[in-house]
What does this fold into?
Amino acid sequence: MIDLHTWTTPNGFKPLILLEELGVPYRVTAVDLTKNQQSEPAHLKLNPNGKIPAILDGDGGETAHVFESGAILIYLAEKYGRFLAKGGQARSDALAWLMFQMSAVGPMMGQWGHFRGAKRDDTYPLERYEKETQRVLGVLDTRLGAGEFLAGEYSVADIATYPWVSAAPRFGLTLEAWPHLQRWVMVVGARPAVARAMAWKP
Ligand SMILES: N[C@@H](CCC(=O)N[C@@H](CS)C(=O)NCC(=O)O)C(=O)O
It folds into this structure.
């Protein structure tokens, strides 16, 4: 049984989507970010960085716990042998686009959201992250113009990217400028497992 410790944020939804896609038994423990539960000692044992998500694997294998959403997706995809090709270009592409989500899409959108709320006199940080967010969304759009999903077949790369891109309206962004990305959001969002995961409430 997988124990998922998470909350209703883009990074928090990623493993929920994968677990729903896999259809394996799992349990969710809500880590309420509004109560700072991510900084409590019990959670820090699972994730020393004091963030969600994290998982515990109680199935008795060699791995007991995993943190960092990208590492969790790779761990679960490999454990159950789905949504990450075992080798070749398909695997390299899925890992590369997963890393692109982890290093660019998430951090740039996250920082943009932060500085939108921070209301500082200095407009540089907001402009910088807005421009970078738009640039990385453009990179995704170009990629999705060449294929249905980020790495050929639907994979952990799409699962990691969807909760961020689908949150674009919260950042005051429509996706009109990126038609391929807009099409992909509709396709991924229409998957029953994705809809179930995104509807999760603590
Ligand atoms: N790189 C980490 C980022 C995790 C992260 O930033 N999680 C946020 C929620 S989306 C969090 O726990 N924030 C609480 C805090 O910063 O105290 C991952 O992908 O797992």
Notes: Strands lie at 2-6, 26-30, 54-57, 65-67. DSSP finds eight helices and four strands in the chain. Helices lie at 10-22, 41-46, 69-80, 88-118, 124-144, 156-165, 179-189, 192-198.
